[in-house]
Amino acid sequence: MSQNLRVAVIGAGRMGIDHIQRIHRRIHGAEVAAVVDIDLDRANAAIADIPGAVALTDAQAALDNPDINAVLIATPGFLHEEILHAALVKDIPILCEKPLTPDAESAWKVVQAEEKLGRKRIQVGFMRRYDAEYAQLGNIIRSGELGELLVLHHQHRNPATPPGFTNEMLINDSVVHEFDAVRFFTGEEITSVQVRMGKRTRNAPEGQHDPQHVLLETESGVLADVEIYVNAQYGYEVATQASFEEGVVSIGSDSGPYVRTQGRWGGTVTPGFEERFGAAYDVEIQAWVDAALKDEIGGPSAWDGYATAACCEAGVEAQKTGGKVTVALNPKPALYN
Ligand SMILES: NC(=O)c1ccc[n+]([C@@H]2O[C@H](COP(=O)([O-])OP(=O)(O)OC[C@H]3O[C@@H](n4cnc5c(N)ncnc54)[C@H](O)[C@@H]3O)[C@@H](O)[C@H]2O)c1
Ligand SMILES: O[C@H]1[C@H](O)[C@@H](O)[C@H](O)[C@@H](O)[C@H]1O
């Protein structure tokens, strides 16, 4: 594929708009050819500064357009499955925002459809793998320089949740990132999930128990915990501390610049994921484009999407029971080895 990628972005909401601007302004080798949203006004607003792009309301119409040769899916997670299958039929590179799908059964169907196609076409939007500090911690773990990794502590805090953010979405939409991070760091599958509910913040909307404490273990016995706290008010913070045999590594905690003025010292907390992970999204999308132009796909795969969906399913079950729930996975198809 020598020409630019001509991308249809499906979903012009918070994340879709961010990716549209990213592709238009910062990514090399790709252009936004179409924006699809059921809300045509949103789609039109999204292409206002992109000459030549078209606004549509139907994803299939974009996929049927021979001028489109790649698709970025940024609709809510429960809508991904249908678009993924339609895009696999077109046999074009796909960047699907996380989650691949919200449950293991539908994610497995996507894996099977890709396996039937016979080659990888899907990259899942687990952008943390492209964050510089995440990549560095991954390298430290793999190098063995601090001995064996023993425990991972995660904090995942959002300032507030959008309307309709259910109790299950704390797992399916938020902790799904830590499921991927733990698998990425350890190179192992997660074998069990437990969720504990403690004291609830008065800032949580009705029906949502916030914060929650999620406990995981991996095949070799690495333990991980996640504080998921999505109405934390003060800002957006995602951090990890890793304990090894010979040391401890922290990433994502406070970084400069530290300012001293008017009798106070301090810095700022990022307000949202766009600021905290802006650079990682750029690297993620550029990597997808670079691979797609060589007719390849890299990064987190549909298998990673399926395995994390299975963790989510166990997590949602664990929310109800409070007990430890085993993660059950189908055998990994050779395509993903
Ligand atoms: N990687 C990350 O850090 C990150 C951050 C935020 C969101 N996300 C993911 O991105 C996706 C979108 O999230 P968001 O926060 O932008 O949601 P959003 O609700 O802000 O936007 C979704 C958009 O999809 C549109 N839409 C709904 N149904 C549609 C359909 N059938 N066809 C076309 N468009 C349709 C809506 O009108 C809306 O504009 C989700 O999967 C979410 O989990 C990922
Ligand atoms: O969809 C968003 C997004 O994935 C963010 O990265 C995460 O921090 C939020 O918790 C989630 O709701």
From TrEMBL:
SUPFAM superfamilies: Glyceraldehyde-3-phosphate dehydrogenase-like, C-terminal domain, NAD(P)-binding Rossmann-fold domains. Pfam families: GFO_IDH_MocA, GFO_IDH_MocA_C. It catalyses: myo-inositol + NAD(+) = scyllo-inosose + NADH + H(+). One of its GO terms (molecular function) is nucleotide binding. Keywords: NAD, Oxidoreductase. Involved in the oxidation of myo-inositol (MI) to 2-keto-myo-inositol (2KMI or 2-inosose). This is Inositol 2-dehydrogenase. It comes from Crystallibacter crystallopoietes. The gene is iolG.
